[in-house]
Amino acid sequence: MVAAAVSDDSGRLLIARRPADTHQGGKWEFPGGKVEEGETPLDALARELHEELGIRARTFDPLITVLHDYPDQRVRLEVWRVVSFDGAATGLEGQEVRWVTTKDLRAYEFPDANLPVLAALGLPDRYLITPDPEGDADEFLRKLKRALGRGVSLIQFRATNREQAEYEALAVEVVQICRSANARLLLNANPARALALGADGVHLNARRLQQYRTRPLPRGMIVGASCHDTAELRLAASCGADFAVLSPVRATPSHPGAKSLEWKTFQDLCLGARMPVYALGGVGEGDISRARACGGQGIAAIRGLWDS
Known about the structure:
Elements: E1 2-6, E2 13-17, E3 28-29, E4 32-33, H1 41-53, E5 56-57, E6 61-69, E7 74-82, E8 85-86, E9 97-100, H2 115-121, E10 126-129, H3 137-149, E11 154-157, H4 164-180, E12 184-187, H5 191-196, E13 201-204, H6 206-209, E14 222-227, H7 230-238, E15 243-246, H8 262-271, E16 277-280, H9 288-293, E17 298-301, H10 303-306
Parallel strand pairs: 1-7, 10-11, 10-17, 11-12, 12-13, 13-14, 14-15, 15-16, 16-17
Antiparallel strand pairs: 1-4, 2-3, 2-9, 5-8, 6-7
C-alpha cells in the first residue's frame, strides 16, 4: 500500500474518509491505494492521486514506511510527502475530503496503521541533544539560543553533571527559552520531573526505557526513547513512545569502541520500528537526506547541531 501526505501552500494536509463498507471503514486516511502488478510504488501513488483526487503530483519525498498487524491482515504502508501538485483536489470517487492543520489531525479517527504517520508529520527532521553544561550556565544558554536561531525546533535537555536543585533551576530557564522560540523541549529525566518543570515531554534513556510497559506521559506530550537494537525498539513501542533514536549509526569519538550499525542495518530496523526513528552517532545535517531515504525521520545529534 502507498499513501501521500499532500499539503497545500499554507501547510494544511489533505485527508479522506474511507467508505463505510471497506476495511477500517468510516475512519480517515491519507489518500493512496494498492500497488498494481508492474507498477513502482511512486507510479501507483501518482495514479491513485489522479484517479481519486484529480491532482498530478510533481514532487515526492519519503516520510515513513509502516508495518502493522491487524487481527485480520498485515499492512505495509509506504507514505510519501507531496508538497507540489497540479490541479484542485476533489473526492472523485464520492469520498469526503478535508484540508486540516497538522495540529488538528489528532481530532480525527485514523486506522491504527496511520498513527506512526501522524507522529512523523508532527516531528522535524533534526533533533538536538544538548551536551552536558560545562562551567558557566550563561554560555550554555547562549549556545542554546544560537541553535534555536538556526531553526532547531526539537531539543533534548541533558545535564547529568548537575545536582538536583541546580538542574531544576537551569531546566526552568531552558523551558522558557524554548517556549519563546516555539521549540519543543524534552527532558532526559524522570517523566514526573518533566511534568513538574513544564517541559513538552521526556526522553527515556535505555535504562529508563526498561522500567516502562505503558506510556509514562499523557497524550499531547512527547515521549522519545534511546534504542540500539530490535528489542529496545519493541520496548519503545510497547510503552507508547512517539519516536525512537537509534544509535550508533557511525563511529563517534565519544564511544570509540561501540560497534556502529551502518546505514543498511539502520534502514532494516526503521522498517520494523512502527514509529519515527532518528539516526544518531557520527551524523550531521548533511546526513538528513540519507537518513530519510533509509526510512528514518532525520538525524539526532549533539556536536552536529550544537556547534554547527
